[in-house]
Amino acid sequence: MNIQSPFPSEFGFACVSTEDLGDYQPHPEEMKCLSPKAVEKRRKEFYLGRLAARRALQALGVAPQPILKGERRQPLWPEGIVGAITHTGDTAAAVVARKDTACGVGVDLETLGRNVSFRISAKVCTEKEQAWLEEVPNDKDMRLKMIFSAKEAGFKAFFPIEHLYLGYQDAELCWREESQSFAGVILKAAGAHHPVGTAFEVGCRVTEDFIFSFVSLPPLDLRT
Ligand SMILES: CC(C)(COP(=O)(O)OP(=O)(O)OC[C@H]1O[C@@H](n2cnc3c(N)ncnc32)[C@H](O)[C@@H]1OP(=O)(O)O)[C@@H](O)C(=O)NCCC(=O)NCCS
User: What digits encode the pLDDT tens for the residues 74-121?
Assistant: First the structure.
């Protein structure tokens, strides 16, 4: 199933599924990022992610080029571009933007059917977030998956900027029904540009098949 871009038109976005792969092959340099021992599932998700990245760059008017990987597995985008990749099962999505549009972007897809053990809630959620889960005893698994997905999207946006690792307890999210998004705040500095207390917003959509989370962080020169 295809997901439409939730981003404004100055972002490049693409969502691809297995049928789009055809005879697509990642660039030989990109293939060096994939372990020769990678199992079929990993190989496929890597192909899907790189194809989504390629199409997202095309949507932004950027010529296709190999997207290699950094020390912490983060994708390395062309000069002046930020981006993020997500994949799950047969589907992948990618978003890219110029640095004068966003200093970081993130996306995350979780398959709805995937079981997330409720035992991880204490690891993933702060106390306030756990209280939000407990408001709906019959639906707390869904809320846990939404928080999990939104935090992964947030991580992908923040990490590449200054390479500081944010754990699940280093951000707190508060659901806003009216905008179908989480208001987030980071509880640990994500670098000089993003001190403790930096606010961010993560959109979160529940479709028939997925939970889809997306975030963009304002360009650095627009920050006060
Ligand atoms: C890195 C991480 C976010 C990936 O998420 P995931 O749900 O496992 O997998 P997804 O399919 O959604 O995304 C995988 C893609 O993320 C990207 N990615 C991996 N590490 C990354 C990093 N350090 N920074 C940015 N993007 C990264 C890669 O493009 C990867 O795909 P690829 O290996 O094929 O290139 C996750 O494994 C992780 O480490 N999370 C813990 C930290 C966290 O989420 N903290 C929350 C703080 S708000």
Answer: 999 999 999 999 999 999 999 999 999 999 999 999 998 877 777 789
Total of domains in the chain: 1
CA of 90 to the centre of ligand 1 (A): 17
The CATH number covering residue 212 comes to 3.90.470.20
Measured in Å, residue 152 CA sits from the centre of ligand 1 at 7
Closest CA to 16 of 69, 92, 77: 92
> What's the pLDDT tens digit per position in 165-190?
999 999 999 999 999 999 999 999 99
The pick from 86, 90, 145, 185 for probing ligand 1's pocket by mutation, whose C-beta has the most ligand atoms within 8 angstroms, reads 86
The domain in which residue 137 lies consists of: 12-222
Atom of ligand 1 nearest to the CA of 85: 29
Cα–ligand 1 centroid distance for 85 (angstroms): 8
pTM score:
0.96
Q: How confident is the model at residue 1 (pLDDT cuts 50, 70, 90)?
A: low
- Considering the domain boundaries, does residue 6 fall inside one? no
CA 145, 154, 199, 204 dihedral sign is negative
